[in-house]
Amino acid sequence: MSIDTDPAEAARQARAEQRSAQLLEAAARLMDRDGPESVSMQSLATEAGVSVGLIYRYFGGKDELLLAVILNVLDAFGTEVPKAMDEAGEDPVHRLAAGVRALCEVIDDQRYAVVLTYRATKQLSPEGRHRIMELELSTMEPLREALRAGQKSGAFEVIDVDLETYNVLLLTHSWALKHWYYERRYTVEEFATMQTAIALRALIPPRQRRKYAALLGNAGA
Questions:
Q1: Residue 12: which residues within 8 A CB-CB, separation 6 or more?
Q2: Which tens digits make up the pLDDT trace of 141-157?
């Protein structure tokens, strides 16, 4: 039995989500440029082209807004990474490669916010920091699962799954952290392809490399 959705309510929710996303994007951009401590609600309102009162309809204050910016990135990881990996099928190598590409795409879309996760987390409350750490751990679980599956099948030689998971994460984060350098040389698609090859070359044993030559580049020859 289906439940009818009020079109007016659906439209209202869509507008609210769009406005919230607009505010989060403006906040990430402004905080990255000026530093979170220098950003006022008035400067954010100016940046976003809205009133201060409208911001307070969505967020209780600057600390709540900063937390929302960071959580928004992690939520995107938690949605887009498993989706891409599931679409890649059952092979753990292809799943990991899809996860790396999805991470890069989310980071490219929200790179100001990714940088903030490094610069501004210390300004959050202990509860906020704990929430972020727990969410980050959960969003990385699909990558861990792919590494464990590859280790079990012999597709990967992994010394430490948890360490390798974060090695992969840091490879992708560098697109945001050193964007000034990478953007001069690569598109995000090229960056994702090469970082995938770098990660896989360290994981796939020689006996398996021919099978995954398309992902490894020259290393698979």
A1: none
A2: 999 999 999 999 999 99
CATH code of 100's domain: 1.10.357.10
Could you give the CA distance from residue 190 to residue 20 in angstroms, rounded to a whole number? 31
Work out the pLDDT band at 5, boundaries 50, 70, 90.
low
Distances (CA, A) of 9 to 12, 13, 15, 54, 126: 5, 6, 10, 19, 36
In a domain, residue 181? The reply is yes
From residue 179, alpha-carbon distances to 91, 109, 129, 147 in Å are 31, 12, 25, 27
Report pLDDT digits (tens) over 164-199: 999 999 999 999 999 999 999 999 999 999 999 999
Q: Are 17 and 75 in contact (CB under 8 A)?
A: no
d(CA 55, CA 65): 9
- Show the CA angle centred on residue 18, arms to residues 16 and 23, nearest 5°: 95
The answer to whether residue 14 is domain-embedded is: no
Count of domains forming the chain: 1
Q: Note the pTM of the prediction, 2 decimals.
A: 0.84
Cα separation, 148 vs 140, in Å, equals 13
